[in-house]
Amino acid sequence: GQRAQEVKIFLEIHAVDILLISETHFTARSYIKFPHYTVYSTNHPDGTAHGGTAVIIRNRIKHHELAKYQENHIQATNVSIEIENIPAIISAVYCPPKHLITPAAYTHFFKTLGNRFIAVGDYNAKHEHWGSRLTRTDGRRLMTAVQTNNLTWLSTGEPTYWPTDRRKKPDLLDFGIVKGINIRQCTVSSCFDLAADHSAIIVTVNSHITQVKTQPAIYSRRTDWEYFRQRLEYQLDLQVPLKDEYDIERAVTSLTELIQNVAWEATPKLPIPQQTNNTPTTIKDKIAEKRRLRKRWQLTRSDLDKREYN
């Protein structure tokens, strides 16, 4: 639908490698896909359309899905990647606001992620340390778990939640909890391109992320098989003595090398695919205008600006 198209454009414009989504509202019947990406999701344990998380990861990144964390108080989708050739877990997290999560419950969740992770999402936990307007009980409990387990946090320090009710003030609810990764190699910024009551945060990890290795091939759909046949017949030497094991082994090696070399000759090299941005200029202009209107509404909170933004 419209929201999926919006996410597709967001992935393309920002060249996103991994997108973490909180509160997906997916059920067992939900299905979504994007070109060149794989989608993993965790639904609310009661199976209805609320809560839930998802990880959308670029196919070229070496990764695999891990066990889902699927409890009433925390839902998380977990994917393992390699940062600087060392495994690390990327987790999309959602904590529904109606649950008072204890420090022990937070600790249990974080321990399932191991010793190296980035867990980003809507924690619904306010604390001035990561930039919320005020500190509440939920924030104190999460901070206790963070300090107890020697964790740290990634945050923009700016509001990420923009309630439509003008009586409520914007606040910061979305941030990351990190362990075993140098946060000085990470940058965090706000992004207002998505139409939702939560603005996105973009985390850039300035480290090497292991990519999937492409398997070498001696032929492709562009191989000229007639050229291959002719060249192989011309170069093939059938007058080879096969008197002992050494002769046979040398003949096999020679034939294998000949087949490989002729196949490579007959196969034109494919160009290396480049990352392209196919979003039409008109859509980019509309996104820029929407970003401008959203920013104005966030500053004024007026009904008129809200109508223009919508």
Q: What's the arrangement of secondary structure elements?
A:
Elements: H1 2-13, E1 18-22, E2 37-42, E3 53-58, E4 64-65, E5 69-70, E6 75-83, E7 86-94, H2 103-112, E8 117-122, H3 137-148, E9 152-154, E10 174-179, E11 186-191, E12 200-205, H4 225-235, H5 245-266, H6 281-300, H7 303-309
Helix pairs in contact: 2-3, 4-5, 6-7
What's the short story on this structure?
Helix 2 (103-112) links the parallel strand 7 (86-94) and strand 8 (117-122).
List its traits:
single chain; 310 residues; alpha+beta; Deoxyribonuclease I, Chain A; 3-stranded antiparallel beta sheet; 12 strands; elongated; Endonuclease/exonuclease/phosphatase domain-containing protein; Endo/exonu/phosph_ase_sf; Endo/exonuclease/phosphatase; catalytic activity
What's the number of helices?
A: 7
Sequence of secondary-structure elements = HEEEEEEEHEHEEEEHHHH
Q: And the CATH topology of the largest domain?
A: Deoxyribonuclease I, Chain A
Distance between the termini: 17 Å
Number of separate strands: 12
Detailed description of the structure:
The protein has 310 residues and is an alpha+beta fold. It has three domains: 2-205, Endonuclease/exonuclease/phosphatase (Deoxyribonuclease I, Chain A, 4-Layer Sandwich); 225-266; 278-309. Helix content is 30%, strand content 21%. It is built from seven helices and twelve strands. It has helices spanning 2-13, 103-112, 137-148, 225-235, 245-266, 281-300, 303-309, and strands at 18-22, 37-42, 53-58, 64-65, 69-70, 75-83, 86-94, 117-122, 152-154, 174-179, 186-191, 200-205. Strands 4, 5, 6, 7, 8, 9 and 10 form a seven-stranded mixed beta sheet that branches. A three-stranded antiparallel beta sheet has the order 1-3-2, with no helix packed on it. A two-stranded antiparallel sheet has the order 11-12. Strand 6 and strand 7 (86-94) form a beta hairpin. Helix 2 (103-112) crosses helix 3 (137-148) and helix 6 packs antiparallel against helix 7. It is elongated, with a radius of gyration of 26 Å. The two termini are 17 Å apart. The mean pLDDT is 89. It comes from Photinus pyralis (Common eastern firefly). GO terms for molecular function: catalytic activity.
